[in-house]
Amino acid sequence: MTAWSALSRATHARDERRGISRATLRRVMTYARPHRGRIAAFVTVGVVEAVLAVATPLLAGRVVDTIVGGGSASTVVGLAVLIAGLALAGTALGLLGRWLSSTLGEGLILDLRTAVFDHVQRMPVAFFTRTRTGALVSRLDNDVLGAQRAFSDTLSGIVSNTVTLLLALAAMLTLSWQVTVLALLLLPVFLLPARRIGRQLAGLQRVAAESNAAMTGQTTERFSAPGATLVKLYGRPDAESARFAARARAVRDVGVRTAMVQWAFISALTLVSALALALVYGLGGTYALAGSLDPGAVVALALLLTRLYAPLTALASARVDVASAVVSFERVFEVLDLVPLVRERPDAREVPDGPVSVELDGVTFAYPSADRVSLASLEDVARLDGRGGVDVLHDVSFAVQPGQVVALVGSSGAGKSTIASLVPRLYDADAGAVRLGGVDVRDLTAASIRRTVGVVTQDGHLFHESLRDNLLLAAPEATDDDLWDALARARLADLVRALPDGLDTVVGERGYRFSGGERQRLTIARLLLARPRVVLLDEATAHLDATSEAAVQEALDEALEGRTAIVIAHRLSTVRAADCILVLEGGRVVERGRHEDLLALGGRYAELYRTQFGRPVAVA
């Protein structure tokens, strides 16, 4: 499908024909309310500027009348000085207005970006697994900037141009109502196309936003370390370049179309303004020659006409600007209107003090469908998949007593990592309950869950910040001594001391300046700093060689001492000492017991053991 057909479809879309939603405008005003003092000052400055703009042509007419009437030079000089004073005042007010405009606009950007960022942080993990990062970043960048223009530019223009228009019209009617009425005969040319052009440009604005989001999404994914590595490994840079060029051309095409529509609209209105000016000179000059109109009045009318049609042009364009800004607001509000599936109850309480147990009681769970957690525009699809998720856990029940270590083993996709996501409440169970310290996690505060449950995931993710910052994420109040102690227990202290910047070394995006084993040990050091009462290890030693695994296992044994722990592992050698081993298959617990008992049972666990070690089961 060509870019032009997409533009045409957007231009004639039904949702654009409905115009600007009043509900959207009311919601926009809620963001303006905290800035009402600055908005009032902004509007006042615009009104005063409008008064000065109309006063200058009237004074210019007085100058002409004084010259033609043989008045004194002092009068002419006095009027000139007054005109100069008005110009200086107008410049000063323009500077003040610009400052108010910029502070108002930047304040709105801050409010919107903060609101979107905070809201997105509350979204469930399923939202991030489906959403294109670039499309989401575009909402925080391009769309917020588009919404900001409604206040920093459009608002002042509407107020000052309306006042200028009314004052200029009143002055012109006072000077010569006949000339004024004839000059206004072309007014419908201004008003009739404004509504249609506004709808058309609003459609183009939406297409531009979506095209920019698609282009940003590709660059965000391909310029990340994993994305760039994938492209290089599979050797398709030409295909990636062609795909990016197609998206960049779509952005170019919509930009050209928008520019041409705006140019044609403004040029037509400028032409009408010029024709009206010629009418004033011709008709007003005729009246002046006949003696029914002063020469100064003709000059004042001509100058006032520019103060009349320029605001009309701006006000006609204001609808275009407002429509474009509303599109940006709507795209921002789309994100803010997504309801997080995991929400904290108003009466939520803290996790009980002391040792903490973990219990799953009849838990059934299916990952949510796309239409519950995402937006089509954020996934770059025409329509979200509304099909319900398939259950990945079926009536799972088990309990981990305080201080116990329970291991989860089983085939890939059996539901082990899903359980690890339910305990810290990254998702909520569809049926049954997950409890910490005997309390349903849905009744606990998110902050207390984070303090209680520490997780080491498979990928060992790190932010593109310093080692210190990545470690302090777990314990903001930790001292350097605490950091070095955690690094030593994770068998990393010598490595970090050898780095040129030590703790201030930047780890790179996702920690790619370190090996997989080193990244994993850094995340373990972060866990040791957090000192949680419940520990979840999701393949925590998967990326370590035998030597590193043994070293880190010693640190983990120390960290797990006296704590409740759930350990997920494919390497059965790492779970032999667990107090209880749960074997999951197809989302159900099919076996449970200690290592020796499960081997003696000769069931699924024994089969997994035999597959890994390639020897018959031998029970001591």
TrEMBL record:
Supply one GO CC term from the record.
plasma membrane
Chief subcellular location equals membrane
- Which Gene Ontology molecular-function terms are recorded? ABC-type oligopeptide transporter activity; ATP binding; ATP hydrolysis activity
The opening ranks of the lineage are: Bacteria, Bacillati, Actinomycetota, Actinomycetes, Geodermatophilales
Transmembrane regions: 39-64, 76-100, 165-192, 259-281, 287-310
Q: How does it sit in the membrane?
A: Multi-pass membrane protein
What organism, scientifically named, is this protein from? Geodermatophilus normandii
Entry-linked SMART domains: AAA (SM00382)
Q: Where in the cell is it found?
A: Cell membrane
Q: Which family does it belong to?
A: Belongs to the ABC transporter superfamily. Lipid exporter (TC 3.A.1.106) family.
- InterPro entries reported for this sequence: AAA+_ATPase, ABC1_TM_dom, ABC1_TM_sf, ABC_transporter-like_ATP-bd, ABC_transporter-like_CS, P-loop_NTPase, Type_1_exporter
Protein's name according to its UniProt entry: ABC-type multidrug transport system fused ATPase/permease subunit
Which parts of the sequence belong to the ABC transporter domain?
Answer: 376-611
